[in-house]
Write a structure and sequence with these properties.
This protein has 2 helices and 6 strands; from the N terminus they run E-E-H-E-E-E-H-E. It is α+β, with helices and mostly antiparallel strands. It has one domain. The protein has a 4-stranded antiparallel sheet, sandwiched between helices. The chain has a two-stranded antiparallel ribbon with strand order 4-5.
Length: about 90
């Protein structure tokens, strides 16, 4: 991903935008209030373009968007700064 940011999948259901795996884990812990266990999953999404990964979110009235578009939107509007919690499938 451009600008040195990456997307990490943590604990099989949460996606975080960060500059490193350790930064992603710190962000995840700060957002969830949980402790990341060393045997839990934390992987960088590298196997497919972020423009191909789409998801639904409430903020836009139930529409879908790609990870790439949502990250651009968040950064351009300064809605959040890196690192940030991008998505979850927990809900």
């Amino acid at each position: 991903m451009s600008e040195g940011f990456k997307v990490y999948l943590l604990c099989e259901c949460d996606w975080v935008v960060a500059e490193s795996k350790s930064q992603a884990i710190d962000c995840w812990e700060g957002t969830t209030g949980e402790t990341f266990e060393k045997d839990e999953m934390a992987i960088e999404i590298e196997d497919r373009p972020l423009s191909d990964i789409t998801y639904w979110y409430n903020d836009i009235g139930g529409k879908t968007t790609s990870f790439e578009n949502r990250i651009k939107e968040v950064l351009e509007t300064k809605e959040d700064t890196v690192p940030f919690f991008l998505a979850t499938s927990e809900f």
